[in-house]
Amino acid sequence: MIKILSKLFKINKKIIILESYPDFSDSIFELYKHLLKTYPSYEYYWICDSKNKNKAQNKGIKKIIFFFNSCNLFQKVKTFIVTSKAKYFLVSNRVFLHFKKDGQIVLFFNHGQPFKKVSNYNFQIDKWIDYIVSNNKFTSDLYFNNGFFAGKKALYMTNLRLGLFNLKEQQRFSLRRKLSIPFENKIIVFAFTFKLNANEETDVVNLLPSGFCYENMRLLDEFAARQSVSIVFKLHPSIKKPLIYARFTNIIFLTEDNLQEKDIIFYNLLGESFCLVTDYSSVFIDYYSTLKPIVFYCAEYNEVLNKNKALSGDGFMVDNPRDYMAGPLCWNFTELFDSLKSAINGDDIYLDQKKKMNDLWNKSPCEYDEVDQLLFK
User: Fold this and answer.
1) Crossing angle, helix 214-226 and helix 333-344, to 10 degrees?
2) Burial category of 328 from C-beta neighbours within 10 Å (exposed 0-12, middle 13-18, buried 19 and up)
3) Is 149 helix (H, G, I), strand (E, B) or coil?
4) What was the pLDDT predicted at 125?
5) What does residue 373 show for φ and ψ, rounded to 5 degrees?
6) Right CATH for 164-362 from 3.40.190.10, 3.90.580.10, 3.40.50.1820, 3.40.50.12580
7) pLDDT for 117-143, tens place per residue?
8) 8 Å CB contact between 108 and 133
9) Is the pTM of the predicted complex or chain greater than 0.70?
């Protein structure tokens, strides 16, 4: 019935719907700013949960529709009409269509880089999309060679979120003020992949990889004080409140909600940092473009690698993940402290490797050209 009713509305090639994970961020939001400036006569609608309406307005987004499962009847009708009329859908996480009309086109912008294999890439996505948008042929081939998006076409576009690493002096001062970080302190960001959702009250330390017990966290706090360093743990966007926050002098914990409350963009924080500590979260691939130190904490690496060998659906998109990790691999806290000291002292033996990895993953044959040509030909 819904599909039949949708035929009452003619597709308008000047209506574009955007969706980005977790709300209004990533490369799609940067592309949105470009589209607004370059093609102002088009209508751009963002789709989101109704609870995020104010966040959208704070971002300067004027046209908003809502997912069916988060809105009232009037809002559902509006969403139905707009999605029936839209020509293009630019999505990064959720393909929200209940139907797809002939002539409608879906472009998929993956949230992050194709390093860790996620078993639900195909779930509610593969059957809808027409194009995947990727940095270059190397990254698009990783999808195709791992059995994802079979038969789809690839478009290439610059990784626009990398531009968020570049901060003006005023932005640097503002970010540090919001986090109460002294300007003379170096910032180390810890960002790990998703481990456990906190639907009930959960101690934040339990959401970190193996080895991050309270005793080791205390040692890390003391280490930061001695080195004039501020440490920021950015928790995965899938982790929700409520959390029990551990109290340390030189360590800050941030959820996605915390960042939005403080009006801080995660990639701006990464741009202001001087070092990244991660496991196998693909954020390190974007961070290569800064050529700053990266330390890999690998306490759970073998567990994920074994999943990959077992073909369980998780694991890695590449055959030998270590070949792409341009930084020290730490298996315990002793090695982690040693690697952080080397980074602080400026001992970076991985610089040339990072340059090669940045060219491999992030170098793109074009900026907006192929996406613009499809949308506005």
Assistant:
1) 20
2) buried
3) coil
4) 67
5) -65, -35
6) 3.40.50.12580
7) 765 554 456 778 899 999 999 999 998
8) yes
9) yes
